[in-house]
Amino acid sequence: MGSLFIVGIGILGMLFGWFVYSRFVATKIYRLDSGFRTPAHELTDGVDFVPANKYVLWGHHFTSVAGAAPIVGPAIAVYWGWVPAMLWVVFGTIFFAGVHDMGALWASNRHKGKSIGALSETIVGSRTRALFMIVVFLVLLMVNSVFGVVIAGAFVGSPTAVFPAWAAIAVALVIGQMIYRWKINLLTVSVIGVIALYASVYFGSTTPLALPDTMLGLTANANWIILLFIYAGIASMLPVWMLLQPRDYINGLQLFGGLFLLYGAVVLATPDISAPAFNDLTGQDAPSIVPLLFVTIACGAVSGFHGIVASGTSSKQLNKETDARFVGYFAAIGEGSLALITIVAVAGVTLAATPELWHEQYHEFGAGGAAAFISSGANLLATGWGLPATITETLLATMLVLFAGTTMDSGVRLQRYIIQEWGEIYHIPAFRNGVIATFVAVACCLLIAFGAGGSSGRGGMIIWPLFGTTNQILAGMTLLVISVYLIKLRRSAWVTLVPMTFVLVMSFLAGVVTLLKFIGEKNYLLAGINIVVLITTALVILEAASAVSAFKANKQAAPDVGG
């Protein structure tokens, strides 16, 4: 089966999602109102609440939620065959991710930019908030701890990506001034930013940079992790217009450029597919495709982390409520497009020339991942466009690093929000201070990185096996909160209830499967955390059912504007 067929089916599905389904959900279900005064205007403070151009905000939202996951997940899931991976990405993007992300933006926007945890208290009940916070904080801790490891590993393994990755920060700082201080036309700013970014990629491909193998008694990998968290801590305290928005916007444009090159290479080279449609040669120890496929591919289909970002930072920058469709749903389309081209790259002859060689590459579950995407994607670009391999590898490695870096920026900022919320809830004055809250957030990540991982700093990898299940459970819980809100507004809720039910069932089953695996391996730490997440999920579902039952007994619709 040719790669053009996969691309054609996927793109047609996503076009239907954008032009038909998202418009239906936005106008008939969420009823987005351009006249509604958003929190960005009502509560503007120049730091977190800042009205943003919808294209700039799209860039922030998209690159914050993308990270490395829409690349890593599909590149691993192709192990079961390209058909199930493609179907989950396409249907997940259309009916799950876009509805989830746009819904989280809308619900938060209607409640003064509250995070999904605070929203759960307002919409469902006070006990739900504490339960939600447990899952949210765990997901953020996993993402931040592991993405630090991923970026550090990319810097060590691809030193040509170091210069463009750090140069992007300087470019973003200038772009922020150009947009908000100097009021330069956005198109001009975009052209300058993209040229500067790609110039840095070219320079980086000829000038690899690396830290010493050992410095201050630590490896280069460990030192990179420390530097990355110092940067993330500082970045999370800066006003969003100064670094977060422009950095993410330029990275979003860079992704569009990368997607154009990758999809264009498929059209020009029309590579065949080496991977099987359904893999019949999986190992005896390989996990079952059901339910594990639906937690292996998260970003690119649906992801709970998106709800944290949508309600945590993006809703505070929404200029008009109607922008939620473009920012939330179209960002999901972008991520699904990245996941789709990843599947084509790692399933095609650009990774392995024959089915036999492909099976050698994917000899076991988990054998794919970021490295497979970078090598196969670089080959695809070189074949289709005739670009030098050094440039294509640097380009894709930089793209991966920039996505993971912007996710870290937003992730640490979101951790700071949660800690400040805890300061309000539990009356801890110190936690309300932004600097102290940021320090606590970074300290938690470094404690996991070095406390659990020793001098290597790879401690986040210890709890990473829980991420897929925990993240998807959070997606189901977010859809649950949106569904309860729709029911209280006496609107049709099937567009969120159907994906909510599917995601919760699959992720809960996956949680049970991984729990049994952890117990079998005598990994009682992960087993204990897993049990906490599963129990928390069950309690949130019960709380939601109780809230809906009580609401129906009152027979009175909730106000259309939240408190």
Question: Can you walk me through this structure?
Answer:
This protein has helices at residues 3-29, 39-42, 54-66, 69-77, 82-109, 116-123, 126-157, 162-180, 186-206, 220-237, 244-269, 289-296, 304-312, 323-347, 355-361, 370-385, 389-425, 429-432, 434-452, 460-463, 467-488, 494-520, 524-554; strands spanning 214-215, 218-219. With 563 residues, it is mainly alpha-helical. It has one domain: Up-down Bundle (Amino acid/polyamine transporter I). Strands 1-2 form a two-stranded antiparallel ribbon. The mean pLDDT is 90.
List the helices and strands and how they pair.
Elements: H1 3-29, H2 39-42, H3 54-66, H4 69-77, H5 82-109, H6 116-123, H7 126-157, H8 162-180, H9 186-206, E1 214-215, E2 218-219, H10 220-237, H11 244-269, H12 289-296, H13 304-312, H14 323-347, H15 355-361, H16 370-385, H17 389-425, H18 429-432, H19 434-452, H20 460-463, H21 467-488, H22 494-520, H23 524-554
Antiparallel strand pairs: 1-2
Helix pairs in contact: 1-5, 1-14, 3-11, 3-14, 3-17, 4-14, 5-13, 5-14, 5-21, 5-22, 6-7, 6-21, 7-10, 7-17, 7-19, 7-21, 7-23, 8-9, 8-11, 9-17, 10-17, 10-19, 11-14, 11-16, 11-17, 12-22, 13-21, 16-17, 17-19, 21-22, 21-23, 22-23
